[in-house]
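Reviewer has doubts. Consider these C-alpha cells.
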Amino acid sequence: MIDRFASRLLWLTLAGAFLIALWRWLPADFGRVDEAARNAAPRVVAARGDLAADEKATIEIFENARDSVVFISTRQQVQDFWTRNVFSVPRGTGSGFIWDDAGHVVTNFHVVQAASEAIVRLADGRDYRAALVGASAAHDIAVLRIGVGYKRPRPVPLGTSSDLRVGQKVFAIGNPFGLDWTLTTGVISALDRSLPSDSGATIEHLIQTDAAINPGNSGGPLLDSAGRLIGINTAIYSPSGASAGIGFAVPVDTVNRVVPQLIRTGRYIRPALGIEVDDQLNQRLSALLNVEGVVILRVAPDSAAAKAELKGATIARDGSVTPGDVIVAVEGKPVATVGQLLGRIDDFKVGDTVGITVLRDGARREVQVTLQPGV
C-alpha cells in the first residue's frame, strides 16, 4: 500500500513540475484576446489586373463551345433470372456534341453500345430522350438525334485534321467521371496513331494528345486554338484507368466523312479493293518474303481488284504458297500492315480511283483501282 502511494505521489510531483515548466515557457499574454484581434477585419483585396492574353483566349474557346457540348447518360435493360421481370438500370455516361441544326448529336460508339436508352442533357439543363441514327464500330462513331426546337444549341464549328502539327494547342471538353462540362488543355503529342477498338477493328489516323482525357470524356470534342472541331476524344492509354497524359481522338476528317453517311443511310459502307487479306498470316508471309507490305491472298471475281488485274497468292497441291501481289503503298503512302491498308483505303470514297503500288516478281508496279463498296 505504501509503495503504491509513493508511486502515485511521484507521478503527481512530476506532472506538476511539467505544468509549471510549461506555464513559464508560454508567453505572458497567452490566451488573452488583445484589442487588435477584437477589431480584426477582412484584408484589402489586391488588384488583379487584366487576364493574360492566352487566358482570355482559353476562356473564350470554352464559353463559345460549352453550349454545343452535351452530357449523355445511358441505361440498359436487364432481366431478373428468377422473376423474368425486365428492369432498366444505369449503364454509363459520356459526352457528345451538336453536329447540325437538325438535332444530330455525335458521340463515340462505345458510349451507346449495348444501351437500350440514351438521355442527352444540354448545357442549360434540358434533358431529351435520344434516338440512335447510325453507328460505325470501325471508327467508334455514333450519331444520335434529339427533338430540340426551342433555343437549339449551335453546332460546333468544323475544322480539319489533315493539316495538324505536333505541338499545336488543343482543348478537350467533356464530362469526366460525371463532372459536367470540364475543360482540359494540352498539345498534339503525335499524329496517325493506331489503336484497337472494342469491336476488334483497328482505328487508324488517331490524334494523340496530352490533354487530360478520363472516363466520361469519350465522345466529347477536341478543339484547336480557333475553337474548331478537330477530333472526337475516344480513348486513353492508362494502366490505372485514369489519365496518364496519353489520350486519343478520332480525327475530324474521318468524322466528316463518316457522319454524313450515317445520317443518310444509318450505316457506313467502307470502300474496298475486293481482296482477301489476313493480319496474322500477313505477318508470317511478309517476314518470310522479307518485305513490308500486305500480301494479297485472294482476289474476288469481278471485283475492283480483278478489273485492275491484281493477283492473289496461289496454293499448290503440296501446300506450298506462291505469292502474287504484295501491296506496299496507297497513293504513295507506305503500308506495312492490314490495318494500315484498310486505313489508307478508308481515306477515300466508293467510286474513287486510287493508285496502288504492288510488288510483283520483285518489281514495283503502279495499278489504278476504282474502289467498290465493302461488305
The CA atoms of residues 34 and 246 lie 56 Å apart.
